C-alpha cells in the first residue's frame, strides 16, 4: 500500500480516533452532559435598537438567514376590526394576523351571532368588541380599533367604508373596491372628507415574488418588457346560483371584477403604466343560471403607452389557474400561481454564459396577507399614504368598465394616456412594510 | 352568415346587453351600492360544535378549501416556556407560535438580559415570566407554564430537561435529544420518574409531505420500498470555530447529530423499521480547525429487516441540500427540500395509463414547527404519549454511536433486530395534531 | 441475536455465497467466457411481416420499449429534392432524413454552386441530381425524385411550387405557404391541375406532444376547452436588415407569418375549429430599419364557434419563447417549447384523488421533421391526401389577412363560420406516418 | 386625446399603413409572388473547407444555432459490422447510425436467418455482408468493414472480440466488457497483439450533459466535490427467468454489471479518480427464480483519494430510475435520467446574487449512441486511442469484483490508490467526436 494512501487513511480516521472513547456502542460518552460554554457564548445575537441581530454562520455558498422578525409589542400594535367573518376572514385573514408584526385584531363585526361568538372566542376578542351590522357605528367609541377592514360582498363596501369613515376609523377594503367607478370615487371622497386613510387590499402588490418581478421590470434587468400573458380562472360549484358572486347587484360583474382584476391590476402594478387601449370579448354559457346576470369568461388585451401589451384571460369555467408569463427582450419570466394566496414561484428563462438556462428563483415570501395588513398598520403608525389607496381601486373600476364596453360594442376602447408612473399609488411598502 | 353563428353572436353579447346600463364608461352603474342580500345570507358558514364550517363552493375539478382553523381560545391553550432564545427560537419557533392553535408562549429563559428583555417585549411576555439560567427552577411556581421547550446546545439538553422535570413541567426538547445514548436514557428516566412527558422535536415527523410519504410507504401504495438515497448537507462559516457546534463536548459530534440525523430519523419514521446493519465512512479536512473535534462528512448505509436499504450522506462542506429519493417497485419519489424548515415538495415518477409521468403533488402544508408544538400541546391536553417521545431520541443516539463505530473500525455494525413497527413511537399525531 | 434476523442475514448472503468462487478479487471467475446460450436463444425477437417484434421484458411499472423502427428498404423509399439549402435545410431537414423511414434525399437545388457541391458530397447526392434555379425544370426527367420540398423565402414558394407541379412532381412546401391567400390559392390550383399533391410543412401537426394534446382536446379528456394563451417570440440580430425576413415583398409580413403563424395554426389544429372573430394590435419600434417594412409585434385574439378563445402573442423583439397554455374545465395544460424544433414537454395540472397535482407527461417524441417528411412519403406511397394540404395554408393566409385588417382598422373582424371540424385537412397521419 | 398618445397611435399604425393594400381581406396582396432577391442573396451560408457556415441571425439574448452538421461523404465513412441484432441493435444502434457523421453500417451478424434478412433489407445491407456466427470469421475478407461492434450477451464478448481481432478488425464492444476482469484483460491483450483498437461502449462518457458535468467537476466550477448519490434501477418481467441476464454464466452478475455499472463508471469518469475503498451490501428476494443465480439489489459506497464519496444503488426490483445528484461546496447538481438513452437534464442549485436559484441548463445533446460510434470512427480515421479503451472495462470489472467481495465478506475492501487522473482512458472525444 502506497505511502500516499496510508496518509489518506490516517486523515480519514483521525477524527474518529479523537472521539473514540465516546463511540463505543453502549459505552460511556466522551461528550458528557453538563459540559457547556458559559451562557453568554451560547446565547448569540446582539440587541440593536429593538431588534436582535445574528451574525451569518454559513459560508457564502448558502443563503444567509433573514434577520429574525422583530414584532411590535402587542400593546403598540394597530388594532383592526374585521367586518364580515366569511370564508376569507376565517381561512386567511384571522390566521394572517398571527403572522403580523404591527397589527392585531381587536374587534369583529358579523350578522350571525353564533358564528360571531365562536370566532371571537377562538381569537380572544372580548364580547364588548363584537358588533352586529346594526350597532356597527358604535365602533366609533372603541379605542382599541384604529382600522376597519371591510371584507363584505362588493356592493356593501361603500356603505361600510363610509360608516367606518364617519366613525373616524381608517379603512382597509377588500378588492374590488366597489361595484362601479362612481361608487368607488364616492368612497375615496368620503374618506378624504373624514380625514381617514383608505387602502384597497391588493395583496399581490405586497407579495414577495410579484414585488421582485416589479423590480426586474422597473430596473430593466431583462431589457424592454414586450408582452405579458395573464390567466386567472377557477370554477364555481354548479349549485352555486345563490352565491352573491352570481348577482350583478352584489358583485358588480362576474369573473372580471372577482379574479380577472388580478391580471389587470398586476399588469399596471408591474409596469406602473396605465393602459391606453383595451379590447375585450365575453362569453357566458347560455341557460346556465349562474351566468344569467354576470359573465363567465372574459378575454381582454391591454395596450400600454410603452407599447407593452398584456393578453388577459379570466373565467369561472376552467380549473383553477393563476399564471402570468412575461416576455422581455432578454428573458422570459413565468410565474405559476402568480395570484394565489401562497405558493408563488418564478422561472426565468435566460441566456447564461454559453447556455440557455431556466432558473427557478427562491425568494423568502412571507404571508402576503400579513404583509398587506402590516403595510396598513405602518401607514397608520407613520402617517403615510397607502401604496394601494382608494384611487387605485377607482382606476381599476374605470378600466373594467372600459373592458365591458369594448366587449359589448365589439370596439376597442381608447383611453386618455396618463403620464408618469404609479399615477394612483402612494408610498411604497418597505421591507419593514 | 349562418343561423348557427348568429345565435352564437347573440349569446355572446347577451350578457353584455343585460348589463349595458352599467357599462358605459363613466356612466351611472347598474350595480348600485346598498343593494345587498340580508346579512344572514351574506355571512355564510355554519357553527358546528366550536367550529365554523363552510360548504364547498367550487366544482370538483378544483381543490376544496381546507376547513378554517379553529384555534383554542387563548386562555385554554397550553403555555410553553422557551429555554434559549438563539437563532432557532427567534427565527422559527416564536413566529411559529403565532400559527399554533393549541399552544402559546408564556415564559422565556435566557442568559443575556438585554436580549431577554427585547424579545419578551416583542412577544408580550410579562417580566415575571422571564428567567435566567440561574433562577430557572423558580418556573415550578409559574402556573402559566405547562411545557418547557429546551432549545439549547445539545450538551445542555440533559440538565434543563431534568431541571424542568423536577419543576413538574412537561418537556419538549430539541433534537438531538442529547450528546450520547447514556445521557438520553437518563433524561427519559428522569421524566418518567417525575411523571412528566418528554417529547423530542423531530419536526419532520409532523411535516405534511413527509407524513404523506409515510402513508404511501406504510400502505404499500407504490409496492415494496427497495431503496432510499438521503442527503443533508450545508456549509458553516469559515470563521465559525467558536460555534458550539464545532466542540465535541457541546455538540456530541459534527454534521451527523446536527443534520445527518434527519436522514437516519426519517428513514426510520417512514418505514417504522429499525436498522439491523450499518456501515459508514467519515471524512474531515485535515488542518481545518472547525473539524478538529467533530466530523465534517459522513456517508452511511442502513439496512433494515425488510432489506430496504438507505444510503445517507451528510456534510458541513457542501452547499445546503436536503434531498431524499425513494425507489419503490412501482414508483420513484423525489423530495427536494425534504428536511428544510419549509418548501417541501414531492415528485412521483410513475406509470400513468399508457405514459410515464412525473407528478408534483400539492399538499396543504402548515408550518411544521407549529404542528410539532401543537402536537405536544395536544398530548398535554389529552394526556397522550407523544409520537416522538424521549425513547425515539435514545434510539437515534444508539444508532449514531453505531455509525461512528462502523466508521472508526472500518467494519459494518450488526444490530439486534427489533420486531414490530414504530417500536419507540407514541400516539400518532392526528389532523388536529 | 434473534432467529428472525439470522434468517434474514442468511437470505442476504445466500446470493453472495452462490457466486463466491467468482468473487475473489483477482481470482478466476466462475462466469467464464464461452458459456452462452445457443444463438437462437440469444437472438430474441420474431419477424412478423417485414418487422421484428420483441416481447416486453420489463414489469408493468416500467414503460415498455416502443417497437423497433422498421424502415423501408432504401430502394423503396420516396425520393425528395430539396429546393434551397439554407439554414433550415442544413441544420434540420437534411439531418432529419437520416431518421426517416420512408423518405430519402435524392436531389438538391441551389443558386450557389460551391455550397451545392459541398452539401451534395456530404449527403452523397450525385452530381447529375444537383440543380441550379435556372435548370431546375430539368428535374422533370429525374426518376429518383418524386417530391420537391420547397425551402425558399416565402415569396418564391409559388414559383417553385408551380414549376415543380409542371415537372410532374409532388410538392412539400415550407410554411407559410406563400405571401398572400391569393398566391396560396393559385398554388393549390396549379397542383390540382397538374394532378400532384401539395402539402404544407406544418411540423407541429406531426409533433408527438401536440398530437397527444389534440387527442385530449378532441376526446374531451379534461372537459370543455375554455381558453388558450399562446406565445411565439424570438429575437433577430440588430444588423439583420438585409435578411429577407425584413422585406415585405419577400416575407409577406414580419413576426406574424414567420412565427405567430404557429399560435394561429396550432389553435386551429388542436380544436379542428375555424375562428369566427379576430381582434389584433400591432407594434413596431419606430426608426428601427428592420421594422420599416414588416411588423415586430402582434397581439391577436381568436374566438371560435365553441366560444373557446385564444390569446396569441408574437414578436421579433423578445427572447425566444414558444409557449402555450390551455385552460380546460378540469385541467390546465402547459407546454413549454410548444413550437420548438425539439424539447417539447407537457405539464397537466389536475385534481388527483384528494390532492392537486401537476403531472409532466413523458411521451416518445420522434424527430418532428422526419415525421412530417415521412407523412408526405406515405401520402405518395398510398395515394392519400396530406393531413396539411395546400388548403390549410390558404386558410391561414386568409386569417392572417384578417389579423392585419383588425390591427389596421382597430376593429375586430367577423368571419363566416365554417361548419364541421378539420375543414381544410386531409387524412390524419397514423403511427406509421 | 393628448398629443403624446396620438403619436403613439400613429406609430402603431404606421406599419399597418405601409402594408395596407395587401391587408384587405380577400384583396390583392402587395407582397406578390415572384418578387425576390437574387438567389445568391437568398442562399446564405459560406463554404469554409468542407463545411457550410452561417452567421448568427439572432440577438445575443437568444442561443445561436449550432453550426450545421458536416457529415463525411458516405464513401469516406468508417464501415461497421454489427454482431448481434437484438433489442439494443434494432431499437437504438441501427437508428443511431442514421445520425452519425463518420460511421456507417456495412455488415450484420446474426444467428437467426429470417431476422437477419429482414433487418438487412431495412438498412440496405447487401446479402454478401450478412454473416452467421459460424461464418463470421470470413468478415476478414470484407473490405467494407473496418470495425466490429459486439452487441452480444456479456459472456460472448470475449470470443467475438478475439475473433474480430484475428480478422484484423477494430472492435467496439458493449459494456460490461466481459464477465470477469481476467476475461477482460485477455480481450485487451488479444487486441493489442493483433494491432487493432478496442473500445468499450460507455455511452455516458460521450453524452453531452455528463460531459458538461465532467467539465464542471474538473474545472472546479462549483468548488470541491464532496459527495454523490447515484441510482440506477429498473424492473424485469416476472416471467423473465429465461433471459440471459438472469444466468450468472452469461451475464457475470445481476443488476450490478448491467446497470449499477453506470453509477460506478460515471463516478470514475466525472472525477477521473479511482476508488480506494469500497463497501457494499447485496439483497435478492429468496425464492424468486430470476434471482437464483444473480443479485437483484446492490448498495455500494465508493471512497476516492480526494475523499469524495459516492453512494450508489442499483436494483432490478424498482421502477426505472437513473438519477445522480452531486453535492459540491458551492452548488448542488441533480441529473434526472442521468443514464438513460435520451432525455438527460441538469439542475444546478446555487447562490445567484442575493437569491438562491435552481437553474435547469439547456444543452444541445446529440444522440449519445451516434456520438460514441463516431468517436470510434474518428479513432480509426485519425489513428487515436479511444477515450474508453478496453483497459477502462478491465478496471470496472476489478471494482465490481471488489464490490461483490465487500458484500460477501461484510468487510470494506481497500484498494491500492492509483495516481493521476484518467489512468485508464485514451484521447478525449472532441466536438468533432
TrEMBL record, chains A, B, C, D:
The keyword Signal applies. Residues 1-31 form the signal peptide. Residues 211-326 form the GFO/IDH/MocA-like oxidoreductase domain. Keywords: Oxidoreductase, Signal. Transmembrane segments: none annotated. The keyword Oxidoreductase applies. Residues 79-202 form the Gfo/Idh/MocA-like oxidoreductase N-terminal domain. Belongs to the Gfo/Idh/MocA family. This is Gfo/Idh/MocA family oxidoreductase. It comes from Devosia rhizoryzae.
Amino acid at each position: 500500500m502506497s505511502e500516499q494512501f496510508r496518509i489518506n487513511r490516517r486523515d480519514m480516521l483521525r477524527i474518529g480516533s479523537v472521539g473514540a472513547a465516546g463511540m463505543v456502542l453502549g459505552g460511556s460518552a466522551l461528550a458528557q452532559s453538563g459540559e457547556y460554554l458559559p451562557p453568554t457564548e451560547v446565547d448569540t445575537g446582539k440587541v440593536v435598537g429593538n431588534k436582535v441581530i445574528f451574525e451569518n454562520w454559513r459560508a457564502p455558498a448558502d443563503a444567509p438567514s433573514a434577520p429574525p422578525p422583530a414584532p411590535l409589542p402587542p400593546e403598540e400594535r394597530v388594532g383592526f376590526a374585521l367586518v364580515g367573518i366569511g370564508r376569507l376572514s376565517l381561512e386567511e385573514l384571522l390566521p394572517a394576523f398571527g403572522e403580523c408584526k404591527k397589527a392585531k385584531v381587536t374587534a369583529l363585526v358579523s350578522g350571525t351571532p353564533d358564528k360571531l361568538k365562536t370566532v371571537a372566542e377562538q381569537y380572544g376578542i372580548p364580547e364588548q368588541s363584537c358588533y352586529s351590522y346594526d350597532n356597527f357605528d358604535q365602533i366609533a367609541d372603541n379605542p382599541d380599533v384604529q382600522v376597519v377592514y371591510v371584507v363584505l360582498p362588493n356592493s356593501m363596501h361603500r356603505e361600510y367604508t363610509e360608516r367606518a369613515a364617519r366613525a373616524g376609523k381608517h379603512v382597509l377594503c377588500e378588492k374590488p373596491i366597489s361595484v362601479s367607478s362612481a361608487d368607488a370615487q364616492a368612497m375615496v371622497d368620503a374618506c378624504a372628507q373624514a380625514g381617514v386613510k383608505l387602502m384597497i387590499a391588493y395583496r399581490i402588490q405586497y407579495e414577495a415574488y410579484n414585488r421582485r418581478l416589479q423590480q426586474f421590470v422597473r430596473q430593466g434587468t431583462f431589457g424592454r418588457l414586450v408582452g405579458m400573458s395573464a390567466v386567472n380562472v377557477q370554477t364555481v360549484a354548479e349549485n352555486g346560483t345563490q352565491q352573491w358572486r352570481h348577482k350583478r347587484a352584489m358583485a358588480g360583474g362576474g369573473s372580471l371584477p372577482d379574479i380577472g382584476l388580478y391580471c389587470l391590476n398586476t399588469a399596471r402594478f408591474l409596469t406602473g403604466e396605465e393602459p391606453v387601449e383595451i379590447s375585450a370579448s365575453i362569453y357566458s354559457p347560455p341557460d346556465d343560471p349562474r351566468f344569467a346576470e354576470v359573465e363567465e369568461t372574459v378575454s381582454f388585451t391591454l395596450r400600454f403607452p410603452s407599447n407593452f401589451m398584456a393578453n388577459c384571460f379570466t373565467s369561472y369555467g376552467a380549473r383553477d389557474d393563476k399564471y402570468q408569463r412575461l416576455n422581455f427582450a432578454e428573458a422570459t419570466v413565468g410565474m405559476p400561481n402568480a395570484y394565489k394566496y401562497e405558493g408563488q414561484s418564478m422561472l426565468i428563462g435566460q441566456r447564461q454564459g454559453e447556455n440557455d438556462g431556466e432558473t427557478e428563483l427562491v425568494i423568502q415570501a412571507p404571508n402576503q396577507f400579513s404583509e398587506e395588513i402590516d403595510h396598513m398598520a405602518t401607514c397608520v403608525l407613520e402617517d403615510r399614504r397607502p401604496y394601494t389607496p382608494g384611487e387605485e381601486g377607482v382606476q381599476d373600476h374605470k378600466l373594467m368598465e372600459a373592458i365591458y364596453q369594448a366587449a359589448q360594442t365589439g370596439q376597442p376602447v381608447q383611453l386618455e394616456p396618463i403620464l408618469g408612473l404609479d399615477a394612483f399609488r402612494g408610498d411604497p411598502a418597505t421591507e419593514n412594510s
